[in-house]
Each structure stands twice: as structure tokens, then as C-alpha cells.
Amino acid sequence: MRSIIFADYLARDTMRLSPTIDVEYSHVRFLGNLHLHLWDCGGQDDFYRNYLENMRDHIFRSVELLIYVFDIESEEEGSDFAQFAEVLEALEQHSPDARVYVLVHKMDLVKEELRDDVFEERQASILELAGRLRVACFATSIWDETLYRAWSEIVYSLVPNTHMLETHLTDFCRACGADEVVLFESTTFLVIGHAAQNPHPDAHRFEKISNIIKQFKLSCRKAQAQFEGMLVQTNTLTALFAILSKNTTIMVVASDPLIHEAALNCNIADLRNRMNLK
Questions:
Q1: Which of 219, 217, 241 is nearest to 227 (CA)?
Q2: For residue 14, what pLDDT is reported?
Q3: Between residues 72 and 34, which one has the greater pLDDT?
Q4: For the chain, which residues make up each domain, given as ranges?
Q5: Please, are residues 189 and 249 in contact by the beta-carbon 8 Å criterion?
Q6: How many CB atoms lie within 10 A of CB 115?
Q7: Neighbours of 179 (CB within 10 A)
Q8: 24/276 Cα distance (integer angstroms)
Q9: What confidence tier does 128 reach under pLDDT thresholds 50, 70, 90?
Q10: In the chain, what is the straight-line distance between the N-terminal and C-terminal CA atoms, in Å?
Q11: Which tens digit of pLDDT belongs to each residue from 69-106?
């Protein structure tokens, strides 16, 4: 999961990866000056005792958010929840203000007609254990857009000044007559901002677009080419992807046939100047 989001792996490539052993630490620079410190803790039972007894203070102190993954395939549900309860206890002791995001993972292995019921049942059990901690749950799979949706919401919660960002995007959307504007982080292509003139029926469109563009970027890299933007035009819309800053990519969607690519690029340049982006 971490490799797909932060290391540009495709889902099929993760089959070659071995399970996490003990604690793997990595540092990711995000949006230029935002630093994510990732502690990937192995889920094997032998290591839980080490986390909770010998490394409790080190791992759970000063935590901004914790991401906990449940394997829906697990046949030891009782043990899984007991371990989760111990983790929440340690978190509440050392970082009571931390946010908790729970990913109920590998949902693709559940029959489609049963997925909603299975997830809601698991979510109810998780929230019952949460106590005073702030907990949000997501059903995820590496094989569809659900993983990107979850991580977009997680990272969005860490981005400072989101209200100001959304205001700039809303003003920009109205000024250039666009139907919708979406801001992506350039490396992960996670969504970090959005504005729209009208509601859209597909609530998962951002994650689908993220997945498509990220795979296209990987294809560019294999061809030793640099992704600098993309223009998609049909009879009914124009969708322009352009680099807004060294850390962000913007997508502008317009259905008005009188709005041309050149005008959108001029507006993007103006937005870049107003937001003091480089």
C-alpha cells in the first residue's frame, strides 16, 4: 500500500514485495515543505508485543495521525480487534488528540453484493472501540480507486491553510468559466483541493483520474520522457492538466466550447502569480 502511494508502484508490482518486518521508517517530502514521517509497522503478532511493551513511548508519542489497516481476509477477527484496542489505548495515553484512519483493506476479495454490509459491520465494531479518539474508516483495495480516495482524505487533513487554498480555487473556477478545478500533489497525484460550479454525479472521479494520470506518468518515465501536462478534448468538454508549481498539478475542466486552451493557460499563469507559486 505504501509503495503504491509513495513509491510509484503499480498494484501488480506489489506482488514481488515481501511483508513488512518489524518497523520500517521512511520520510516523504510532500508539497515542498510538508514532511511525512511514515512508520510502517509489521502486522505479525510477534512484533505487536514489541510495539506495545518495549517501544510504546517511542512509537505512540507526538503522533499527529495513525493509519491502521485491517485485513478483511483475516480469520482471527477477535485477535485483530484485541490488538487494535491495545493500540488505541497506547495512542490515547501518549497522543490523545491524534486522528485515527482505519483502512479495511483487500475489500476486492469480498463478493461485490456483500461489500457494503461487511464494511458497515466492521466499521461499527471499530467505532465502538474508538472511545474519545477521532476515527474515520475506509474500505480499500489496491486494485481500484478506493485506496487513492482514502489517502487523499488522509493527506488533505495534514495540509495547512486548506480554507485559503479552496477559496483561491473557487475564485479561479468562476473567473475562467470552468466547470471544475482539481489540484493534485505532483508526485503521488493525491487530491489536495477542489472547486466546482455544479455537482457531479460520480463521487469517485478524482481517484479514477489520479490513478489514470499516475499510470500515464509511469509510462512517460519508461519512455524517458517528462510529464509536463495533458490536454483532452471532445465535442462536449476540454480537460487541461498543467503544472501549477514544482509540487502541484492542476486540472481544469470546461464544457463551454468558447473556452480555449490558450485562455485556460493564461488563467493558470495568473493563478500561479496570485498564489506566489514557483
A1: 217
A2: 44
A3: 72
A4: 2-156, 162-274
A5: yes
A6: 17
A7: 18
A8: 37
A9: very high
A10: 31
A11: 898 988 888 888 998 999 999 999 999 999 999 999 99
Residue type, 71: D
Distance CA 66, CA 94 (A): 12
CATH superfamily of 2-156: P-loop containing nucleotide triphosphate hydrolases (3.40.50.300)
The maximal CA–CA distance of the chain, rounded, in angstroms, is 65
Q: How far apart are the C-alpha atoms of 255 and 115, rounded to whole Å?
A: 35
**Residue in 75, 56, 267, 74 with CA at minimum distance from that of residue 178:** 267
For residues 99 and 154, give the distance between their C-alpha atoms in angstroms, rounded to a whole number.
9
Give the separation between CA 234 and CA 257, rounded to whole angstroms. Answer: 10
Listed in sequence order, the DSSP H helices in the chain are: 2-6, 45-49, 56-60, 77-94, 115-130, 146-156, 162-175, 205-222, 261-274
3-state secondary structure of 177: coil
Q: Under DSSP, is residue 15 helix (H, G, I), strand (E, B) or coil?
A: helix
Region 55-72 average pLDDT = 87
Tell me if 156 sits within 8 A of 150, measured CB to CB: no
Residue-wise pLDDT for 136-172, tens only, equals: 999 999 888 888 889 888 888 888 788 888 998 999 9
Q: State the amino acid at position 193 in one-letter form.
A: G
- Domain 162-274, classified CATH 3.30.450.190, yes or no: yes
